[in-house]
Write a structure and sequence with these properties.
Layout lengths: L3 E2 L2 H21 L5 E7 L3 H17 L2 E7 L5 H11 L7 E4 L10 H4 L13 H9 L7 H12 L8 E5 L6 H10 L3 E5 L6 H6 L3 E4 L17 E4 L3 E3 L2 E3 L4 H4 L5 E2 L6 H22 L1
Parallel strand pairs: 1-11, 2-3, 2-4, 5-6, 5-7, 7-8, 8-11
Antiparallel strand pairs: 9-10
Helix pairs in contact: 1-10, 2-10, 6-7, 6-10
Length: 283
């Protein structure tokens, strides 16, 4: 059977077309959705991601505001700025672009975002709602993984799924979402023993580390589905966690990097902005 290379751009395009229609309807009702991004420092990959978010937002008709701060800003001043930005009544979403400079990368900064504007779903409140399965928005990258499974007509229920990487952006929330869908989830962190063995038992493997060639062909059983959410830059070139060339010979479906999970994540971030705009309209 020929391996299916998942076209993340095509999936994202479908979502963005639908979002354009929703924005047009909201505008008819006098509502202009707006996303604000807080960017600290000069991280080059972050600049690229922000540009892509801006382009996608403009494409569907969402207002985009970038708030850029120097890397040496203090935590307290950054939090004050985040609080002030949220006084904008037109705002329907706010994200803090990660990674932050190390001293600022704290729950205090992320929790300064109002849960009702937290379109990345990184506040304690949104994570709690995710655990209880009560939130009307979900984290963009984990939701992108679920969107890919949906595109492949794969129901996670009863599937053995191994996630490599237990971070707050992807691994942890994804494990919760898939558990809520009744998948059997193995979440691997840096202390996990026998990761290879856990991967070989998996129907679906999701990587979320940011380490080139972390997942090799000998770790993947024939016809498994491999979804790579990791990103690493080497000599200006973007790679994922997966040894794509060799793993693609064994997997039944696999995401490339770039062009896999990334474009879908951006589209779903904007979907959260529109969901919040609609929610505010009902209040």
């Amino acid at each position: 059977m020929k391996t299916r290379i998942i076209d993340g751009k095509a999936i994202a395009e479908k979502i963005l077309k639908k979002l354009s229609r929703h924005v047009a309807q909201l505008k008819k009702q006098g509502i202009q959705p707006k996303l604000a991004v807080v960017f600290v420092g000069k991280n080059k990959p972050s600049k690229t991601y922000i540009r892509r978010k801006r382009e996608a937002a403009e494409k569907v008709g969402i207002d985009f505001a970038l708030h850029h701060f120097p890397a040496d800003i203090s935590k307290d001043v950054l939090i004050k700025n985040i609080v002030n930005i949220q006084k904008d009544k037109k705002l329907n979403g706010l994200i803090v672009q990660l990674p932050l400079p190390e001293p600022l990368y704290t729950t205090g900064v992320l929790n300064a975002i109002k849960p009702e504007l937290d379109v990345d779903c990184l506040t304690d409140a949104q994570l709690g709602k995710l655990v209880m399965n009560t939130s009307y928005i979900t984290p963009p990258t984990p939701t992108a993984v679920c969107a890919i499974l949906d595109e492949l007509h794969i129901d996670p229920k009863g599937k053995n799924i191994t996630i490599i990487g237990a971070g707050a952006l992807v691994g942890k929330p994804l494990s919760i979402m898939l558990s809520n869908m009744q998948a059997t989830v193995t979440l691997c962190n840096k202390c996990t023993k026998n990761i290879k063995e856990k991967c070989l038992h998996a129907d679906i493997i999701v990587t979320a580390v940011g380490k080139k060639d972390l997942l090799t062909a000998d770790m993947v059983k024939k016809d498994a589905i491999v979804i790579d959410t990791g990103i690493v830059f080497e000599k200006g070139k973007m790679y994922g966690d997966v040894d794509f060339k060799n793993v693609s010979k064994k997997a039944s479906a696999i995401t490339p990097t770039p062009g896999g999970v990334g474009p879908i994540t951006v589209a779903l971030l904007l979907q959260n902005v529109i969901t919040i705009a609609k929610q505010k309209m009902m209040l």
